[in-house]
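Meet my pick.
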Amino acid sequence: MKKYNFKYFLPVVLTSLVLFVACKKSYLDVPPTGSLSPDLLANKIGVAGLLVGAYSLLDGEGSGAGTGNGPWATSSSNWVYASVAGGDAHKGSDPGDQNLITPIEQWNCLPSNGYIDQLWQQRYDGVQRANDVLRIMRKAKDLTPADTLEFTAEARFLRAHYHFELRKAFGKIPWVSEDQSYSAGNFLTPNLEVLPLIEADLAFAYANLPEIQAQSNRCNKWAAACYLAKIYMFEKKFNEAKVLFTTIVANGQTARGQKYALNAHFADNFNPALKNSKESVFAVQMSVNDGTGGANANQGDALNFPYGGGAQTSCCGFFQPSYSLANSYKVDANGLPLLDGSYNKTDLKNDQGIATNDPFTPDATTPLDPRIDWTIGRRGIPFLDWGIMPGQNWVRDQQSAGPYEGMKHMFYKSQIGTYTDASAWSNGFTANNYNLIRYADVLLLAAEAEAEVGSLDQATIYVNLVRKRAQDPTGFVQGSPAKYVIGLYPTFASQDLARTAIRFERKLELAMEGHRFYDITRWGIGATELNAYQAHELSSNYKTLTGASYKTGRSEYLPIPQNQIDLSQVGGKSVLTQNPGY
């Protein structure tokens, strides 16, 4: 098992012990080679091992879904489904490489797309592993009441997480519980709104998980609280969210007992040497050089590194920040974002079409939010400890995908062999955790909740906490010629202004972290935001978005995979129904 080494660790090959939605019965009838029977697992050590197995799928790897399209199809960071589809980034690489991503980027994914079928299966494998814990522990005779409560709370937290991943991507989905089985005749479940069920699991976890865990990578009471508050935001239960966020800000702490706080510097969140920090609420754990050949590394992001030109990252030039994202970091003379959309009137100066050997001088006069150069690799600007980013030589196909490189998942040159896996085929197999929730995300959600209930003073305070961290010049990229300016907001004068500013702050702070599309969807602004994005990228000659269009009532969610609909048939009729417009 990977990365989650609990006290009662059990190195077993885990299997789903009952069928979940849209798998064939034969999957149950033949016990997998190397698996253990439920009776052998029905004890404290066995249940703990099953729990490790449920945690182990957080990274999107290692499930029965396989990796036919690569682990990037199920990456825990959701870089394809949330960041590329949300306008943070272009697919990258060249047009023909991993071309199943392209229709997702264009909001025109077909139900037959293999990426989404793999995503569905992997996330439901996670659901089933959480259910395995809940089901098998009922048979265990050596569990104390405290053991039972702890295992139940952790398993329900994980079950909620996996269902939420599916809910964000597909909308109405089947809810799969530990009580579903062939023998009960209830193994096929129709699509439904699962947010109330996710809320219930997380409320149980919040009420029953301990504040401190023996292992820092396990969920605790406050991780559950943050997740629950986020669900409230998706449900538009703003009053409930406000109350819970207030409690979290006052009392929340990591599983190691550190009070939640922002790290000193924005960039600290993306340095693998500083992971599991006081800002990390709940993270997917990654490790390297542990004898697994990179199996425990962050494989889901392995394609997303500079390509060629001595970059020493091997692969593969995907996930390139968009022109619109780079432009978004422009600020006015007071260091505040251009909330009227004027940031996109002209593109920030870049080296598109300029060879590395040809001269280029980066913009030194346009005021910019300093977070840009910890988020986007730009020619002429220091790139971590790699030296000056050389431009075209690091970009696989600049003509088709643009001039920029992503940075948040990037390792430092000095970390090669330490935080990259020396035995893997690429240095892109890293130990960089993925933060499912970090405290800056929590503060901005808290600001949003305050704004929605009319507490504009407190909303401003929360936003400015995030911006004040970015103001610290010791956290700027040192040696950069860029003009960094960032200011704090005066108290928001209206609810509309607060909404606009907070939403834009989430874009700036959480860019390239797998949130953007899901934020846009829950705000209901997809058609306005993403069609404007499409028009701008086309004007900047990003031709992949030619003909792309976000359609309200359809594009909010991916289609239900056709393979899963077909497998759900009973008497020639599918239990699962397709999403509108597909």
